[in-house]
């Protein structure tokens, strides 16, 4: 992909008039003629799986030595990661549910509740590298809420073990051990 194309893509992602929201990335630009019209199942909400895919690419760009987009990708990655974790955690705190999708204007969960399909990617997002020196206190609080989400959704040890196996497939041993420690502490609470 050319540097100009990457710059234009980052501009689109970061623009609140298109995809960016404080709750995560919208599934369609607000400038698109179909945004929020008719059955807007895919035409505006925030989907955790879509945000995850963008985060993966932003992380890769942030790690490319010599890339003219490294700094911007790092900043967008950090903010988007915090936004989507905060959205899921806040909705969980308010309703006690993980949702299929989240409202792009309010961050409220919508559609299917108790949705542990792709919304469970939030655990993977939390295990992704921290690129900034210090995570905000709000973000750390939200991570604790997600640990409680995993504890309640698991209903026991089996889902916890499966979740850890999935994370182990994608994460480093050090990250896994730290996350396991946090989750185990949450399960004991």
- Number of E strands: 2
Tertiary shape: globular
State which percent range the strand residues make up: under 5%
The helix tally amounts to 7
Helix content: 55-70%
Strands side by side in the biggest sheet:
1-2
Low-pLDDT runs of 5+ residues are 151-173
Structural class label: mainly alpha
Rg, alpha carbons: 17 Å
Distance between the ends? 48 Å
Overall structural domain count: 1
**Average predicted confidence as pLDDT:** 77
The helix/strand order is: HHHEEHHHH
Tell me about the biggest sheet? 2 strands, antiparallel
Report on the structure:
The chain is mainly α and 189 residues long. The protein has one domain (3-94, 115-188). 57% of the residues lie in helices and 5% in strands. The chain is built from seven helices and two strands; from the N terminus they run H-H-H-E-E-H-H-H-H. The protein has helices spanning 3-14, 48-62, 70-95, 121-127, 137-154, 157-170, 173-188, and strands at residues 99-102, 109-113. A two-stranded antiparallel ribbon has the order 1-2. It is globular and about 45 Å long. It starts with a helix and ends with a helix.
In short:
The chain is mostly helical. It is 57% helix and 5% strand.
Walk me through the topology.
Blueprint: H1 3-14, H2 48-62, H3 70-95, E1 99-102, E2 109-113, H4 121-127, H5 137-154, H6 157-170, H7 173-188
Antiparallel strand pairs: 1-2
Feature tags:
globular; 189 residues; two-stranded antiparallel sheet; 7 helices; mainly alpha; 5% strand; 2 strands
